Each structure stands twice: as structure tokens, then as C-alpha cells.
């Protein structure tokens, strides 16, 4: 595969904004734990259509207030240009210099994704570059197992290329458990001249029911042998987590050994599973 490891690798973590003040208090504790390993940055998700807007702001403000490198997500579907401009202007003033730019999926009941001024993430990336120049480093989403709505792998790749050419600096993938899907995707990108860093998104395995639900929705495959083992653990959470840790640890090792330019952890607001992986992989720690 084309080696991407010439770049300085980034090891980042992702959070979502909690719904309640209690959740926010708990998250602060988890952030302190995660920050002990000095991730390259902490990203904070954003609900399409502005559904988490204020909570995303609150989480981003807290991180910035604690001098933690922060990358807010921004999802464009269902939003007007004026709204996106206002949010990005706020981030620019706060000194934010990195964004994860997405189309997003509108929650059901919010119009099916057709409202607003943007249809696809490439339009958002173009808008950010037109209005904000090089203020932000822009990460976009990539799908080694292909986006669930894509007509064909070829079209999905062409759409990804369009988004990259609109001005993305790097991509973060949807999670996956088959490293070959990642390596094949990077190779396909290389063949069409897309050579930006593609950082694997890593989902620790801690809860089978939740993982199965997410995976169905986002088109990430849980290999049959993994699924069968996870199902068989039932309520035995400890054994499930130990097995999940080994599966994801091996995945990460293969990715790093194969030249992946970093890892992005979907922490689900729990520091423990990510920190265990971090430690067992001996990822960079603060000096
Ligand atoms: P796009 O790149 O626009 O692609 C969406 C679909 O449209 C694909 O099938 C693509 O092939 C097709 N397509 C793209 N461009 C065109 C075009 N010009 N013409 C025709 N078809 C096109 N969701 C949130 O709501 N909030 C978040 O914070 C969030 N964070 C995420 C972080 C990461 C790292 C990832 C991988 C996903 C995240 N998501 C988030 C989920 C994401 O919003 C969904 O997967 C969404 O369905 C697609 O977003 P996208 O930016 O990849 O869209």
C-alpha cells in the first residue's frame, strides 16, 4: 500500500456533547483522563440541523478554556449559509484552527436531508475555503467500506475525491474491523491521485447491542466471527470487553504497521477503553 507514514502521525480522540449537566460533569472527568496522554486534538461532534449546537459550543468552550487542542465537527445538511458562517466566525475568533467538516444526517422528522443550503460535504468544504481561506485545517469523513447511500464504490470514491479537491487537508474514516478494507481504500485513493492522510477511525468494543445498532446504521461491518463471539458473551461484560480490546488492539497494530498516518478514537465519552489501547500500543505520551 502507499505509505502515508512520512507525515507526523496524529492520534486524536472524539467526544459527543452530553445532554445533561450531570453528563457534562462526568465528561470533564473523562477529558482529564484522556488529556493525560496528550492526544493531538479532541474533536466534538455536532448534530446536523443544529440539533446539538449549544451543547457542542459548551463542550468546545470548556476544552478551549483548558488549553486543549479542539476540533469541532460541523455538519451542513439542513443549515443555511448564514448559520454556518456565524458558527465558523465564532470558532475563528476563539482561535480554533481545525474542523471536521461533514454533511451529517438529519434526525428523522427534520426533513430527510433536503432542506438548507448544502447538499453534500464537498459544498461545505468549498464554502469554508471561499469564506475563511486557510484559517482552518479541514478533516473530512472517508468510508473504507463505502458510505451506505453511495450508488457504487466507484461513485463514492469520485465523491470523496471531489470533497478532497474542494480543500480538505486530511480524512478520518468511519470505523471498521477489517484492516484490508482500509488498505484497499487507501490504494484506490492513491490510484485516482488522492494522497492526503487518511486516518483510521477506531471504535473500541464495549457494548454489543449498541455497536450492532450503530454498525447497521452506518454500514460498518462487524466480522461474523467477532459478532458471534460478542453475542455469546451475553451479560458477561468483562469478558466481552477483554475480547473486544484484543480485537481492536490487533486491528490498530496492523494499521500502524501498514503505514496508517495515525488513529482517531471514537471514545463514546468513555476514557477507559481508549486509554487501554493507547497504553498497549505505546502511542506517544507527553514529554
Ligand atoms: P458526503 O461526503 O457529502 O457523502 C454523503 C453521501 O453522498 C455519500 O454516499 C457520497 O458518495 C454522496 N455524495 C457526496 N458528494 C456528492 C455529490 N456532490 N453528488 C452526489 N453524491 C454525493 N454526523 C453528524 O451529524 N455529526 C457529526 O459530528 C459527525 N461526525 C462524523 C465524524 C466522522 C469521522 C465520520 C466518518 C462521520 C461523522 N458523521 C457525523 C456521520 C456523517 O455525517 C454521515 O456518515 C453522513 O451520512 C455523511 O457525511 P459525509 O460528510 O461523509 O457526506
TrEMBL record:
GO terms for biological process: methionine biosynthetic process; tetrahydrofolate interconversion. The keyword Oxidoreductase applies. InterPro entries: FAD-linked_oxidoreductase-like, Mehydrof_redctse-like, MTHF_reductase_bac. Its cofactor is FAD. Keywords: Amino-acid biosynthesis, FAD, Flavoprotein, Methionine biosynthesis, NAD, Oxidoreductase. It catalyses: (6S)-5-methyl-5,6,7,8-tetrahydrofolate + NAD(+) = (6R)-5,10-methylene-5,6,7,8-tetrahydrofolate + NADH + H(+). CDD domains: MTHFR (cd00537). One of its GO terms (cellular component) is cytosol. SUPFAM superfamilies: FAD-linked oxidoreductase. It comes from the Bacteria. Pathway: Amino-acid biosynthesis; L-methionine biosynthesis via de novo pathway; One-carbon metabolism; tetrahydrofolate interconversion. One of its GO terms (molecular function) is FAD binding. Its EC number is 1.5.1.54. The keyword NAD applies. Belongs to the methylenetetrahydrofolate reductase family. This is Methylenetetrahydrofolate reductase. It comes from Thiocapsa roseopersicina.
